[in-house]
Amino acid sequence: MIHPELSLVLPYQSGANDLIEGPFLGGYMEIGAPHESATLSGRACGRPVTPGLPEADRRRAFYYTLMPNLLLSLHPDYVNYYLVHPISPSQTLVESEWLVHPDTLGDGANNLKDAVEFWDLTNRQDWHVCELSQAGISSPGYVPGPYSNREDLLYAFDQFIVEFHRND
User: Fold this and answer.
1) CA–CA separation, 62 vs 6, rounded Å?
2) What is the sign, positive or negative, of the torsion defined by CA atoms of 34, 100, 92, 166?
3) FRET label pair with 30: which of 9, 10, 115, 132, CA 20 to 30 Å apart?
4) Paired strand residues for 91
């Protein structure tokens, strides 16, 4: 519901989390056919970043968090990462950079704009949900509820923060 475009390319139930505790969290999602990549068109945006990748992994996007503030998004044809800097309890600065195969930039047929626009749209959808969540959490009537069984990484992140502050 939150990411209709993302769900078409990377169905949220298509993968698995392989790291669910400790300083590294994450897993993969399958790139749904007929899509080749997480782009608006579904076409690959450039050359494979790691040409020797096993066939099964060429149809996957990997997402990992290195606690507390680095998010890695690894795709067959690009990598992007996000550095998240808390400014205040209600404000965060997010930096993002893109990495591609060196030959992709010189290739006039590259489709990088397609990937950047895909993630710009998806991230804006996320930010909107974060803003709504922040407003709800700030409400005097807010009562935390349980996580769903698909939110083990969010729970692990919360536990990391609790432990971090416990050791202050």
Assistant:
1) 14
2) positive
3) 132
4) 88
Query: What pTM, to 2 d.p., does this model score?
Result: 0.85
Res 144 pLDDT > 90: no
The amino acid that residue 63 corresponds to is Y
* Residue closest to 157 by CA, chosen among 86, 66, 87: 66
Tell me the per-residue pLDDT of 104-143, one tens digit each, with 9 for 90 and over: 999 888 889 999 999 999 999 998 998 998 899 889 999 9
Instruction: Report residue 147 as tokens.
Output: 């996580």
Distance CA 52, CA 123 (A): 30
Q: What is the largest distance, in Å, between two alpha-carbon atoms of the chain?
A: 55
Domains and CATH numbers, the chain: 4-140 (3.90.380.10)
DSSP annotation of 14 reads: S
For 101, the enclosing helix (H) or strand (E) is none
Give the 3-state secondary structure of 26-59: EEEEECCCCCCCCCCCCCCCCCCCCCCCCHHHHH
* Phi/psi at 93 (5° precision): -100, 130
Per DSSP, 76 falls in state: S
| Cα dihedral sign, 46-125-161-149 | negative
Residue the block writes with tokens 């399958």: 30
Please say whether the beta carbons of 100 and 39 come within 8 A: no
